[in-house]
Write a structure and sequence with these properties.
By secondary structure, the protein is α+β, with helices and mostly antiparallel strands. About 25% of the residues lie in helices and about 35% in strands. Strand 21 and strand 22 form a beta hairpin. Helix 4 (about 75-90) packs across helix 9 (about 155-165).
């Protein structure tokens, strides 16, 4: 059964024969996933024209009922992006429905953004459920691609320019004055950009069968360090973020305002920091020291190189050159040494329900250790050969966020280890630390901190 030029209800009904839980077309699910992974860095994605022959071949295959499987070996992101536009443009009725054209145009003329957003949300709920789900999935997808606007030049405004004509049209357009049509087109472009920028407020709460993680939103940056930020720690009692720079300075931030609320000078250059049971563990090239948070005084010191810390069930795992030391928090006694020859351990995270410690370091290799045995359970090779410098586990999405020297955050599924997404931003010159704070993940780079929301 053909895919193109068919009502959405029929497309989804047909897809449910293969995937009973499907709520939006499988073609869009797989296309969005592929384009997020492989098209995010393509300059002009969706504005560039694909190969007519390649697009024709893909369309013919999908209309024959072939499974929509897209891989780097068989798919050019530009060709697939062109085909996505064709899919929406050739729907028998526009996604936002031609019968509601006048009402949508009225909403675009409202001057107050808050009112436009509120009425958009109400208006969406008057559409058929499948239209609502597809529109929400599309906006979330466009939002994800727009995070790489510095590279792909496709921010919300350009997304609106490209997609507005494919989402709503007037069956009686031939009777509209050309100048009026141009004004309407401009307002629709601004309208789509507004929805992309205000996705959380504009879109209704609907269940989607999208594959991958939820979208990420830049919230703010906190600035206060002179040297590069090398460590982050979350103080759950005071609800504050503690950040450490290479010169040994600790700056304390309020995560809700990104404002500085305090600072501590530890008196020596440091490489890393971790909070465990009231103490801050600070690593350096010669010694590891523990500081009491309440008194801001040093309570213990042990010789040796320490660049990364992880708290696991009453112990701190100290990563360094050639392996990991496991130290009891109450006695400061080293109870186990895990050797990783020729490796520098730069980051670790604990997945408690799986009893696993994820370890990253030189060469882009991830090690997964069993906490009970200290043995390697898995060894994963990431897409980069650069060093893996930081990681954070986000339990709600079952995802491990791993930062690399190539200025990319790779998001892994912890249950079936595979990369779900990649996040890049030109402002992240060097990723040094990641920390999960509620629904946010906070990466630090250079001398600033960025908050990324998963809501």
């Amino acid at each position: 059964m053909a895919l193109f030029k068919r009502p959405l209800e029929e497309v989804v009904a047909n897809d449910r024969q293969r995937t009973p839980s499907r709520t939006i077309p499988t073609f869009l699910v797989n296309a969005f996933k592929f384009l997020v992974q492989y098209g995010g860095d393509v300059e002009g994605i969706f504005r560039l024209a694909g190969s007519k022959e390649k697009v024709r071949q893909m369309r013919a295959s999908l209309d024959r009922g072939d499974e929509p499987v897209f891989t780097p070996a068989n798919t050019d992101p530009v060709d697939l992006a062109d085909l996505v536009k064709v899919f929406f443009r050739e729907l028998p009725d526009s996604l936002l429905m031609c019968s509601k054209y006048s009402e949508w145009i009225r909403i675009t003329t409202i001057p107050e953004d808050e009112v436009r957003i509120a009425q958009t949300r109400d208006m969406l709920m008057t559409l058929p459920p499948v239209n609502v789900r597809v529109f929400c999935a599309l906006i979330r997808f466009l939002r994800r691609l727009s995070y790489n606007a510095a590279k792909n030049k496709m921010g919300p405004d350009n997304m609106g320019l490209v997609f507005a004509p494919n989402l709503l049209w007037n069956d009686n357009q031939g009777n509209v004055d050309m100048m009026e049509l141009m004004a309407i087109t401009s307002r629709l472009r601004e309208f789509v950009a507004l929805i992309v920028n205000n996705m959380a407020e504009a879109l209704p709460d609907v269940e989607l069968d999208e594959e991958g993680i939820e979208s990420a939103t830049l919230i703010c940056k906190a600035v206060g360090h002179v040297k590069s930020v090398l460590g982050l720690a979350w103080d759950d009692k005071a609800e504050q973020v503690w950040s450490l720079s290479g010169n040994g300075q600790i700056v304390i931030f309020d995560p809700t305002t990104c404002g500085q609320v305090g600072s501590v000078d530890t008196g020596a250059p440091r490489l890393s920091m971790n909070r465990a049971e009231g103490n801050l563990w600070l690593g350096g090239d010669r010694a590891v020291v523990a500081w009491d948070i309440a008194t801001k005084a040093q309570v213990h010191s042990m010789p040796g190189f320490g660049i990364n810390f992880l708290t696991v069930e009453g112990h701190t795992w100290i990563g360094g050159e050639g392996g990991i030391r496991v130290v009891a928090l109450d006695t400061f006694e080293c109870i186990q040494t895990i050797e990783i020859p020729r490796a520098l351990v730069l980051c670790m995270e604990y997945v408690s329900d799986l009893r696993q410690v994820w370890v990253g370091g030189t060469g882009g290799i991830l090690y997964i250790y069993n906490v009970d045995t200290g043995e390697v359970a898995s060894q994963l090779t990431s897409e980069t050969r650069r060093n893996l410098t930081c990681m954070a586990y986000h339990a709600d999405t079952r995802s491990m966020w791993v930062g690399s020297e190539d200025r990319t955050i790779y998001v892994w599924n912890v249950d079936e280890p595979a990369i779900q997404a990649r996040l890049t931003d030109d402002s992240m010159l060097m990723l040094n630390a990641l920390v999960a704070v509620g629904n946010d993940v906070s990466p630090s780079s250079s001398s600033s901190i960025t908050l990324i929301s998963l809501a």
